[in-house]
Amino acid sequence: MVVARGSCPFGLWHVHVVWSGDLVMQVRFLRVPAERPAPPAFRRYCAGDRDALSGFLSVATEGDTTYARIYRTVQAIPYGRTATYGEVAAAAGTGPRVVGNAMRANPTPLVVPCHRVVAKGGIGGFTPSVEVKQALLSMEARRG
DNA sequence: TAAAAACCGCGGG
DNA sequence: CCCGCGGTTTTTA
After folding, report:
1. Which pLDDT score, from 0 to 100, does residue A69 have?
2. Degrees (nearest 5) of the Cα angle A140, A59, A81?
3. What pLDDT is stored for residue A142 in this prediction?
4. Nucleotides of B under 7 A from a protein CB
């Protein structure tokens, strides 16, 4: 299995992707670009294409662990919509803080759209910066 | 290793 | 403001 790495810009950030075919192993937001480009679908998503990432799978959703169930629940949240940590927790059969832990540890943001999971009384957190989450949500709100 | 404590991108009282 | 929650990570022995 051949693994590729590349990035595409998103605002002041660069979306770094590690993937093999349609399976994504890692997505990270860094301030510097990679040497090679990310898959065109990621560039299109960053430009506002709502369905650009629909063909990708995440390694995070594989298996039958609690986190994998949470990631599958989150992946089902449609573009332009949000769910609270508590709602995701209820659907996955666990508690809200566990969902927060899982989001923080999410190896593949965007593919597993953790930015669509918000706190009941606020936006919630994001790694590396909640500004990225805010930018993603407002982009999806404009398009969605 | 194994057990305990600490840690949280939360929520309800 | 505080406390329960529960999976994971870190600390301690």
Report:
1. 97
2. 20
3. 86
4. 7-12
